Amino acid sequence: MNSCYLFCLLILKQSNALKRKLQSPHGNPPLKRQCKPSVNTFKKCATEAEVREKGSSSQKSLPKKQLTDNRNESQKSKPFVKTSSLFRNNPDIPEIHRKAVQQVQEDVFTTDSFNQLDLHPHLISTINTVLNISSMTSVQKQTIPVLLQGKDALVRSQTGSGKTLAYGIPLVQSLQGMEPKIQRSDGPYALVLVPTRELALQSFDTMQKLLKPFAWIVPGVLMGGEKRKSEKARLRKGINILISTPGRLVDHIKSTECIHFRRTQWLIIDEADRILDLGFEKDVAVILNALNAERDTRQNVLLSATLTEGVTRLADISLNDPISISIADEIQKGPKPASNTDRQASSSSDCMKQENFAVPEKLKQYIVMVPSKLRLVTLAAFILEKCKFEKHHKMIIFFSSCEQVEFHYELLLKVLAGGPESQQPGRSSVSPGCLHFLRLHGNMEQEERTEVFQEFLKSKTGILLCTDVAARGLDLPQVTWIIQYNAPASPAEYIHRIGRTARIGCHGNSLLVLAPSEAEYVSLLASHKINVSEIKMEKVLSSLMKDDRFKLHRPGSKKSCGTDPQEVRERATVLQTKFENYIHSSEGTVQWAKKALQSFLCAYTTYPRNLKHIFHIKSLHLGHVAKSFGLRDAPQNLTALPAAGSKKKTKPRPKRSDLLRKTHGKHRLAEILRSEYSSGMDTGVSKVKKKKQRKPGNQQIPT
Ligand SMILES: Nc1ncnc2c1ncn2[C@@H]1O[C@H](COP(=O)(O)OP(=O)(O)OP(=O)(O)O)[C@@H](O)[C@H]1O
Question: Distance between CA 307 and CA 326 in Å, rounded?
């Protein structure tokens, strides 16, 4: 049993001992909270919510005792379902008092064309015709000349500003001109490290396009989940630009004889701050040792939208007198030069000290404050509003664990979209108004992961439920909404998640769902110069008025009118009842919901220490949180839950349970739970062959 699991159990016991009293968000003694006055205006019969499912409209409201009795009866005949009130005993939603901050902004585009650079004409025409790009972005204008001069660089610019081409173009320019001509069998001249498999595929795709006129240079991708044997065969044949996730590369360094870095002259680390996180640090050290052992000199490039001073530790071991390029900081440093785009790269790394990250100009950021009990219905209402009634939206929803992604995917599919028959696999678009759910997380088979990624990439609409595996680097066109159902662990991760929309000058929106006890997160974002506006939960829920599936049928009920708050609440309760009915339709689904809840609680314990005052498990009310997983009561028996993956009705997740068993220390656990950027082969690293002899004199980085 891992430490997190024990911790959760401890917390659950504590929560029970609190007898469901609500906890003050500020850590004061628990208080019985009152609902807002406006909530109290809701009539008792509705808040008691003796909600009948379809076909039971002839029944009248019953006293509470009778209701309970009826419910017991209903185990057989199911005439009634009681949903305890969603709208009572919720904590107050605090007012958000904060100063508006001036967000850091960058100019994405310049008017300069690629012709101004000293590039091979075929490369320029490929950029123009294959990639359909004519003018450089700011980061490209700053970075390409520096890299063409052979210098090392630290590059920071906002999400979706074209960093891939900022390193891709000079890389291809330099390799195509090499004499004697590069041969496939030479092996890697360049190594590109990226944190996830999908980003590896995407970068590979871009590289392939750039290399069209230079067919003798072979790019290749190594990533977890692929057959190791076929990767070995490809390595044997030769890969000149090797794109890989760190874990998978380490695996090959340790077990594949033919891999070598004799000619590796470029090291590019994309999403460098992410790759330097605790989870990857060891892998990167192994990789740098392997590179250093075979070659003394190399050109190194580190890129991210959120490069910070913390990255200088890697910079120290991997960079040689680097040039720092930070588009936003150049703007902040002083009065704008005559031409906005004419900024000079800085030779100091001072600008990386800045922890205020640029946000795309056309990105509108929102938060919604939702009491735990109402989270699920609010999410569902928001999805309906944007993807069913407004249409033409493409949405990504972030969760903090794979189990939650699987759980919400199935639940929303069954209850909101009307079952799997409404989802035709393989299609790239759906009819307007029809909800099309997809999911992506680290416990899926690679084949399916790639299929889903490709499908969402090509699709004009759709709702992708995912973990942070999709937070970094992915360029998914036309995404209009980013929902963060669980708050990210850092402002940097917030920036990357929202950065999946509003790319390269496009419009986009993001919504962060916070519990009232998490309200201070808004100030935390503001302290990093991130401005958010509030959307009221009631406004989100009012979209249920457009969907008569959630209308409460009862004798004498009047015609629905506009956004009557009482009816909105009734409908929210009907929807919640549908969720609960689905969950309580079998013991298997109840266990499944408990597991998802448990994984949420586990993930909640992994927020870093500096955020514990905002995200402390003690401020969660277990019974209320349970409701957002469709459970009618706070689970009393989480201890009795089967081991992950062993229950028939629950989703088998052997990899995850393996990972959890192999987890040592909270940081590693946090890594797995929050991000799961694993190579897919990470548990197999132990079958390691000793790597070749290191060159004497080369610096060895401790692993
Ligand atoms: N000069 C350009 N003009 C127009 N579009 C461009 C240009 N350069 C790149 N793009 C396009 O912009 C999109 C985003 O580029 P890219 O994925 O490289 O951004 P990024 O800065 O790496 O983002 P992230 O920080 O999220 O990884 C891609 O679709 C790319 O094709």
Answer: 9
Token digits of residue 230:
């076929």
pLDDT band at 85 (very low <50, low <70, confident <90, very high): confident
By alpha-carbon position, which residue is closest to atom 10 of ligand 1? Answer: 162
Å from CA of 476 to ligand 1 middle: 10
Distance 6 CA to ligand 1 centre (A): 44
If one counts every other C-beta atom within 10 angstroms of the C-beta of residue 658, the result is 14
CA distances from 669 to 44, 118, 599, 660, 672 (A): 45, 48, 12, 7, 5
Residue extents of the structural domains in the chain: 105-329, 361-418+434-551+566-629
Average confidence (pLDDT) over 263-272: 96
Q: Look up the ipTM and state it.
A: 0.99
Among candidates 223, 387, 652, 53, which has minimal Cα distance to 239? Answer: 223
- Over residues 366-379, the pLDDT tens digits come to 999 999 999 999 99
d(CA 481, CA 371): 22
The answer, yes or no, to whether residue 139 has pLDDT greater than 90, is yes
* Domain 361-418+434-551+566-629, CATH number (from 3.40.50.300, 3.30.565.10, 3.30.70.270, 1.20.210.10): 3.40.50.300
pTM recorded for the entire structure: 0.81
Q: Which CATH superfamily is domain 105-329 in?
A: P-loop containing nucleotide triphosphate hydrolases (3.40.50.300)
Ligand 1 centroid to residue 160 C-alpha, Å? 5
